[in-house]
Amino acid sequence: MAESGILEEVFRVLEDRRVHPKEVSYVSSLMAKGLRGILEKISEEAGELVEAAEFKGENEVVHEAADLIFHVMVLLAYKQIPLEEVFRELKGRRKLR
Q1: Is there a domain that residue 57 lies in?
Q2: Which of 4, 21, 62, 80 is at a distance of 20 to 30 A from 55, taking alpha carbons?
Q3: How many domains would you assign to the chain?
Q4: Model's pTM, two decimal places?
Q5: Domain that holds residue 27
Q6: Please, which residues have CB within 8 angstroms of residue 72's CB and are 6 or more apart in sequence?
C-alpha cells in the first residue's frame, strides 16, 4: 500500500471503532470519554508537538506529529465527518494560490 493510503486505512478502523466499540481498544475508550475527552487529548498532543519542535530532534517531531494527526482523525470519526472532507478543503486551498 502506498503511504498516502494509510490515512484512509486508519480512518476506516476509527469509524469501525465508533460503530463497533471493542473493550480493549484505546480508540473505543477515548471515544467513550466523549467530545471533551477527545479534545483534551488533541490539546495534549498539540502541546507535545510544539515541545518536540522546539527542544527535540526530528524523530520526536515526526512521532508527535503522527500522534496529533491520529487524534484529529479520532475527532473526525467521532463527529462522523468524512476524511475526504478534509482532503477537499486542502485541495480547495491549493487552488487559491
Answers
A1: yes
A2: 4
A3: 1
A4: 0.92
A5: 3-89
A6: 42
